[in-house]
Design goal:
mainly beta, five-stranded antiparallel β-sheet, 6 helices
């Protein structure tokens, strides 16, 4: 893997936090020294002016010194430590206190007494603030009260101490402290070399020494903003496992060429990226959001020349992406061919658990694809399950076999209702020989795996002939849930495995297969996705769902899909409405498209067999559901 740096950012976006001067003042408490803080939850990094002489500040009266109370109880650690925090500005409204934030607030109260630890703030109150994402604390200890100041000094000294292994600011890293505001000053975990600096002019403006500025200047509380990793409780102070540093900026060109691709050749999954082990990256790291300085953090993954993927001539790959331990609230991972092409959302993580997605992605001229995350960070695994060589797009539909794609009406191929799948068991299913599927000459199957509702958590994996999972669907109460996949197979067999604790009923529907010889139709994959529906922008369909009636979109003859096309490859991104549901697509048969939860995003990639008029009906009973549909290619 290579990592690409965005070289187009402006001088202002490169700038560091503004401050009038980098002052370090020393307060004496019980004989110990401490250099207090700079910003609040509403401070956004801006360009720094040329340093000027610092006026002598009006001193804050210092009460009589008192002994420092004991620091928080510290777990036993090894030398391994979390990566340095990065600045992650508030970007969404979610003021509910996050798990790690609540744990830190409880630690403060357990150690130092029941002083208020305010976390949440209304999203319409003031400017940017991590309080609005439930990842900031205002610890209400007052600098002007000796006993309270001593508590703050004890805690902050502990945060910034160097540990026995030489790790500087050790507890701040292990807790994911992004920045601190306290007593006219600011300190940041992402620029610790600056020390404590001037907070919003509170050190240099005599007017701000007035008591009316005590809250503004953080003299009556300590402000603690956490990274998403700290706020979610993923850091080593809580788990004992350090969170790896963010993966470095890539340095390759953003303008690499993309080409149309033809038939997809299924292959046994090729493992091309694992950020946990460093595969494809050099050393363990985490896919992270774009920095406030506009530095990109895209994962640039080399796919050409890996495993069974040819080293030259590849224009698209079918991939399976696994997202693990995402730190932020509902981050979305997207994939694209280069930095300027349309990004296709591939999965949204709804917790710190494991989530899966699939897509067909254009490959840049240097043999790479890109993945990014819009918020926080996550570990990522990518497997290639198929590739397509460069070609020209088909502009019309012929009558002779020209490719390896075979499309059939969406039909049931397997149902375990008579013998449900028990926990930790697998089952192999012979799909070849059913319907129009031949008994030989198959290299892959386009299928949908559906799991019936379950009151007990559980999930089922779809397994390729090589024993590798290519898709997974999580069972939920109340509704059936589905996932679509290209499954490599040389003998027409696929397997399913119950990896949960509930007995589950699973079903498989087929939309087509891939042959080893050019005895079928030709697939054409676009070099960039084409948006066919965006209910938010009133493209294709106007507005979200208001009734359960089908909503129809003409696909053939539009969006680059020729009249007479037999199938279309779609990327679906749904924002759930009033209830959980699975969006269904009906044309030549019905395909379970994307399963979603209320008010949450979900994605899937699906092959939809088309009826003669080239129209597709989109159906959901979840009122208020929004939908984006991107056309990735077609079969003609």
């Amino acid at each position: 893997m290579r990592w690409v740096k965005d070289t187009s950012r402006s001088l202002t976006s490169r700038a560091v936090l503004s401050c009038v001067a980098a002052l370090v003042a020393t307060a004496v408490v019980g004989g110990s020294t401490f250099a207090p803080a700079h910003a609040s939850g509403t401070t956004t990094p801006t360009a720094s002016p040329t340093p000027t002489p610092t006026p002598t500040p009006t001193p804050t009266p210092t009460p009589a010194p008192v002994p420092l109370p004991p620091a928080p109880k510290t777990p036993t650690f090894t030398a391994a430590i979390d990566g340095a925090p990065q600045y992650q500005a508030q970007s969404i409204c979610s003021p509910t206190p996050k798990a790690g934030t609540k744990k830190l607030a409880a630690l403060l109260q357990t150690t130092y007494g029941p002083f208020s630890t305010d976390i949440s703030r209304a999203c319409n109150d003031g400017g940017l603030s991590e309080h609005k994402e439930g990842r900031a604390i205002d610890w209400m200890v007052n600098y002007k009260v000796s006993a309270q100041r001593a508590r703050a000094v004890s805690f902050l000294n502990w945060l910034q101490a160097t540990d026995n292994f030489g790790n500087t600011n050790a507890m701040a890293k292990r807790l994911g402290i992004m920045y601190i505001g306290w007593n006219n000053r600011f300190w940041s975990g992402y620029s610790p070399e600056k020390g404590w600096t001037n907070l919003k002019g509170c050190l240099t403006d005599p007017a701000k020494a007035a008591a009316s500025y005590d809250t503004y200047c953080h003299r009556n509380h300590v402000h603690l903003s956490l990274t998403w990793e700290g706020a979610s409780g993923l850091t080593s102070f809580w788990t004992g496992r350090p969170v790896a540093a963010e993966c470095p900026s890539p340095w390759t060109s953003s303008q690499l060429a993309l080409k149309p691709a033809g038939d997809i050749t299924p292959i046994s999954p090729v493992h091309v990226l694992d950020t946990r082990t460093g595969l494809g990256v050099g050393s363990p790291c985490r896919l992270s959001q774009k920095q406030w300085s506009s530095d990109q953090r895209d994962a640039v993954v080399q796919v050409a020349g890996r495993g069974a993927v040819p080293a030259a001539g590849v224009a698209a790959v079918a991939i399976r992406v696994t997202g693990l331990a995402a730190s932020a609230l509902n981050p979305t991972i997207t994939v694209h061919g280069n930095m300027t092409s349309t990004a296709v959302p591939i999965l949204t993580a709804l917790s710190t658990g494991t989530y899966f997605g699939s897509a067909v992605v254009p490959v840049a001229s240097d043999g790479t694809i890109r993945l990014s995350i819009n918020r926080g960070s996550a570990d990522l695994r990518v497997d290639v399950v198929g590739y397509a060589r460069a070609t020209t797009l088909a502009v019309s539909v012929g009558s002779k076999p020209t490719g390896t794609a075979h499309i059939i009406p969406a039909i049931p191929l397997f149902d375990s209702a008579a013998a449900p799948l028990k926990p930790s068991t697998s089952r192999t299913i012979q799909l070849a020989g059913q319907s129009d599927i031949p008994t030989s000459g198959i290299t892959g199957m386009y299928v949908t795996l559906t799991v019936d509702p379950s009151t007990t958590p559980g999930s089922v994996q779809l397994i390729s002939a090589s024993g590798n999972p290519v898709a997974q669907v999580i069972a939920m109460p109340g509704i059936s849930r589905s996932v679509n996949a290209l499954v490599p197979t040389t003998d027409g067999r696929v397997s399913i495995r119950n990896v949960g604790s509930a007995t589950l009923t699973a079903r498989i529907t087929g939309q087509g297969w891939v042959s080893s010889a050019a005895s079928g139709s030709r697939a054409s994959m676009f070099p960039a996705a084409v948006t066919a529906v965006d209910t938010t922008a009133n493209v294709g369909l106007k507005g979200a769902w208001t009734t359960a009636a089908p909503r129809t979109v003409s696909v053939a003859g539009h969006f680059g899909v020729p009249v007479g096309a037999k199938a279309v490859v779609l990327s679906l991104s749904a924002l759930g409405g009033s209830s959980a549901d699975t969006l269904k697509l009906t044309s030549n048969g019905t395909v379970a498209g994307v399963s979603f939860r209320p008010l949450l995003l979900a994605q899937d990639t699906v092959v939809v067999p088309l009826r003669a008029d080239g129209r597709v009906d989109f159906v959901t009973a979840s009122i208020g559901t929004g939908l984006t549909v991107r056309v990735l290619g077609f079969v003609s």
